[in-house]
Amino acid sequence: MSAPRITGHAKLAGVIGHPVEHSLSPVLHNYWLARHGIDGAYVPLPVVPGSFTTAVRGLQASGFRGANVTIPHKEAAFALADEVETQARIAGSVNTLVFRDDGTIHGSSTDGFGYLASLEAESVSLESLSVRGPALLLGAGGAARSIATSLMEKGMSVIFANRTNERATTLANELAQTWCAHMQSPAPALSTLDWDAWESSLGSMSLLVNTTSLGMQGGPAPEWTPDLSHAAETLVVSDIVYVPRETQLLRCAAARGLKAVGGLGMLLHQARPGFQAWFGAETEVDDATVAHILAVLKNR
Ligand SMILES: NC(=O)c1ccc[n+]([C@@H]2O[C@H](COP(=O)([O-])OP(=O)(O)OC[C@H]3O[C@@H](n4cnc5c(N)ncnc54)[C@H](OP(=O)(O)O)[C@@H]3O)[C@@H](O)[C@H]2O)c1
């Protein structure tokens, strides 16, 4: 594959964060740019807290087409965007900004899209899941918020179990309120479970999603090994942790013969809408993309 072509007309985008050096987005977008032969570049943009608005105005003035936004700027991005798509409004955070020719900024949240696309890529049908039972989300942080919103949009009931139970209750209440404020239809059922009770409740669930950092290499408990013995045979188990690619949770699921979906797909698919908006081409997450990112991860 040839190196990306960068001329004076190059289409420009980047990822704003602090820190931002760990982000895989520059590797991914520049790989896709080269594959599509697009005259463009995607760069890391380290922006300290408090300087977000100044940085975005500078990017707009410099001809950038937009940016991804990561920690700690997602709420600032939500506040700055002139127009925010419905799912991001419900989730309360924005990770993708598109700068329009008229100077306005469009904000969206693509994590939920990426999560659903990763299930679809593994032939998991949400329609059949929602008939079988609710989704159980472990965790109540930013990722849980985005994934829950996208599952709700597909009509699924969602149950949260979080180590800090009050955080789960607050999240369920907030999502119910923002749903009512932005959607015409009643919110799907949202509830919480005690952290100690989630394993024994698996028999009535159709989907289990780990959105905590448990099982992550270098995280609080890399060897975390949950008990899936109560799961129904049809339970789909997904883990959004992607380092390691096969977590202990996924191994336990496979050992029980359950469908298991890892977190790398979500990471890659969530980048597709931004790529299309900034660089004007639809891209795909194929085996070559996965192999490229895995090779980069291996050398980190
Ligand atoms: N695949 C992807 O594209 C993708 C995208 C986003 C995030 N992620 C991954 O998802 C994970 C969460 O991200 P986030 O942004 O939602 O983080 P976050 O907002 O900081 O939330 C972290 C969650 O993990 C829980 N947690 C942390 N340590 C724990 C422990 N020892 N025992 C039980 N629960 C624990 C927290 O519970 P408390 O509330 O009790 O602290 C909280 O619910 C990270 O591993 C991140 O890398 C993956």
TrEMBL record:
Pfam family, one: Shikimate_DH
Keywords linked to the UniProt accession: Amino-acid biosynthesis, Aromatic amino acid biosynthesis, NADP, Oxidoreductase
Residue ranges annotated for the Quinate/shikimate 5-dehydrogenase/glutamyl-tRNA reductase domain, each copy included: 135-178
Oxidoreductase keyword on record: yes
Entry keyword RNA-binding: no
Active site (record annotation): K74
Family from the record: Belongs to the shikimate dehydrogenase family.
InterPro entries reported in the protein's UniProt record: Aminoacid_DH-like_N_sf, NAD(P)-bd_dom_sf, Shikimate_DH, Shikimate_DH-bd_N, Shikimate_DH_fam, Shikm_DH/Glu-tRNA_Rdtase
Class of enzymatic activity (EC top level): oxidoreductase
A single GO molecular function term of this UniProt record: shikimate 3-dehydrogenase (NADP+) activity
Residues at which NADP(+) binds: G139, A140, G141, G142, A143, N162, R163, T164, N165, E166, R167, I240, G263
Function: Involved in the biosynthesis of the chorismate, which leads to the biosynthesis of aromatic amino acids. Catalyzes the reversible NADPH linked reduction of 3-dehydroshikimate (DHSA) to yield shikimate (SA).
Catalytic reaction list: shikimate + NADP(+) = 3-dehydroshikimate + NADPH + H(+)
NCBIfam families on file: aroE, PRK00258.1-4
Pathway as given in its UniProt record: Metabolic intermediate biosynthesis; chorismate biosynthesis; chorismate from D-erythrose 4-phosphate and phosphoenolpyruvate: step 4/7
UniProt-annotated binding residues for shikimate: S23, L24, S25, T70, N95, D111, Y242, Q270
Domain Shikimate dehydrogenase substrate binding N-terminal: 15-97
Subunit structure, interactors included: Homodimer.
Name the record gives this protein: Shikimate dehydrogenase (NADP(+))
